[in-house]
Amino acid sequence: MPLVGAVAAPHSHLQLFTRPAENDQYKRDVQKGRNAMFALREEVERANADTILLIHNDHFVNFDFRCYPPFALFVGQEAKGSGVTDPATIEKITGATYRTYEGKESYQSAPSGIPQHMANWDNQKPYVYKANTDLSVRLLKGLLERDFDLPFTSDGTMDGEEVLTTNFLNPQADKKIMLLFTNGYVPPLPWPKRCYKLGQAIRGILDEVDDRVLVLATGGMSHYPGTPLYGHVDEAFDKKVLDILASGRGSRLAEFTPDDLMQSGNGELVNWAITAGICGDVKAHVLDYVRLWHIGLGYLYWEVGNARH
Questions:
Q1: Position 16 in a domain
Q2: Which H or E run contains 157?
Q3: 219: CATH
Q4: pLDDT digits over 109-135, tens only?
Q5: Could you say which DSSP state residue 107 is in?
Q6: Cα distances (Å, whole numbers) of residue 302 to 13, 38, 118, 246
Q7: Residues linked to residue 296 through DSSP beta bridges, in sequence order
Q8: Tens digits of per-residue pLDDT, 79-110?
């Protein structure tokens, strides 16, 4: 069976940062999240995948209000991205290697006042990943055949949050990647039931190929960026979702509405709903749940394929 593993991991930059003003408990919570990431890395390595399908909501890097599709598939040869902080710091925490360029001493390429991880002005990016283009194109054609009119792009720019999960889980960049971008930010969001069906269609295509694919769903959990609720976390909703997945009832994510996701600060759950559709109703192992100041972070993997031996 080509699906050899599936994990869900946060992409919050807070997993890399602690500040002097933060108390010891907060710093311990950050370390808990990092430890959970390292445990997920062990699951990724155990799966022995040759390709990682990254399901990630774009943070206004590839798309904006002129065109913000519910889903889009990358079909290019190579994906590149910048980190959420300088590469040397990221390497110290995660072990992720990065590319250096002659004459380039800094990766701070964005104009003043714009977050570095949002930058798309400099093509000399530190993180470069070989794409599984053949399988991406096969996936695109298969989804079109299955009535999913999926937009596609040859621009494989990865925002810093997307890169962050690969910093932790594919630190040597030795696995090919596929990128499925989603809309987890801009209402109206895709319906979770549509996300789940998309996952089912993806699984049908993956079952036809020989590639060993691991799915990585990024994001969440509850947070309210850019709103007056920033700082609030709906922990009850987060834990409800984790209980659903841990009990092997992932199809229940399809019962939520877009309003459910937005009101609970869980727009990025669209990524998890797609992955639940890929995995089906199998149990997930929740490694940890960590509440940081403005976000809940969930870490888990599903019992699929040969992920466990």
A1: yes
A2: strand 157-158
A3: 3.40.830.10
A4: 555 556 555 655 678 889 999 999 999
A5: -
A6: 24, 16, 31, 9
A7: 291
A8: 999 888 888 889 999 999 999 898 887 776 55
Quote the DSSP letter at residue 102.
T
| 194 domain residue, yes or no | yes
Residues contacting 51, CB < 8 A, separation 6+: 132, 135, 175, 176, 177, 178, 211, 212, 213, 214
How do residues 42-77 score in pLDDT, each as one tens digit? 999 999 999 999 999 998 888 988 999 999 999 999
For 235, counting Cβ atoms within 10 Å of its Cβ (0-12 exposed, 13-18 middle, 19+ buried), the class is middle
Structural domain includes residue 308:
no
How many Å apart are CA 282 and CA 304, to the nearest integer? 7
CA 259/CA 178 separation, integer angstroms? 29
Q: At what angle do helices 192-206 and 133-145 cross, to 10 degrees?
A: 120
Q: Residue type at 148?
A: F
Q: Into how many domains does the chain fold?
A: 1
Return the bridge partners of 50, or none. Answer: none
CA-to-CA separations, 264 to 145, 173, 230, 258, 269, in angstroms, rounded: 34, 34, 12, 10, 10
Q: Domain containing 241: what range?
A: 3-302
Q: By C-alpha distance, which of 208, 213, 173, 200 is closest to 274? A: 200
CA distance 160 to 165: 9
0.85 cut: is pTM over it? Answer: yes
E strands present in 212-294: 213-218, 284-292
Rounded to an integer, what distance in angstroms lies between the CA atom of residue 253 and that of residue 19?
Answer: 36
Q: What is the rounded distance in angstroms from the CA atom of residue 92 to the CA atom of residue 255?
A: 42
- Reported residue count of the chain is 309
DSSP character at residue 167? H
Going by C-beta distance under 8 Å and a sequence separation of 6 or more, which residues neighbour residue 183? 57, 58, 63, 68, 69, 70, 71, 189, 190, 270
Q: Does 307 map to a domain? A: no
Closest of 281, 284, 279 to residue 3, by C-alpha: 279
